[in-house]
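Format notes (please read before filing issues)

Several people have asked whether sequences and structure tokens are stored in separate files. They are not. Every record keeps both together, in the order shown below: the sequence lines, then the token lines. Line labels are part of the format and must not be stripped during preprocessing.
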Amino acid sequence: MKKVIGRTEKIDFPDFGMTGLDAKVDTGAYTSAIHCHDVKRFTEGTSEMVSFRLLDPSHPDYNHLKMTLPVKKVKRIRNSFGNVQKRIIVETRISIHGKTYKTDLSLADRSRQNYPVLLGRKAIYKRFVVDVSEKNLSWIQKNSSNKKTIS
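Then the structure lines:
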């Protein structure tokens, strides 16, 4: 059975060592995105790579760490302002409702957005149902489970 998620969720990124990042669930967006800066694409041997820093110094979860991952692909994506951009897509893992899934993320400047992560329909397809009247259902469940095990 599919788990229910709300219109916003707090998502864990185990590959990045980050937990509870705020995400907007957007069934109109195909690809998920994460806010980053200092994005540099380069070649290492025969592999195309990208280095970047997650979030930005103004975000409370900013950790200054430089991430380096293989480029999965470069894709044309229409941003929320209607402009088409070429964006680098990487593959990573996200954790929601106690399960971890591989997903594609576009590296984007989301500094003008309210949420550093956008969770698109490719990441939620056949996994979750969205209840737009709710928020952070996965996070609430995770924290109530942790409290039960502690007491």
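For reference, the curators noted about this record: Residues 137-150 form the longest helix (14 residues). Residues 3-150 form a domain with the Cathepsin D, subunit A; domain 1 fold (CATH 2.40.70.10).
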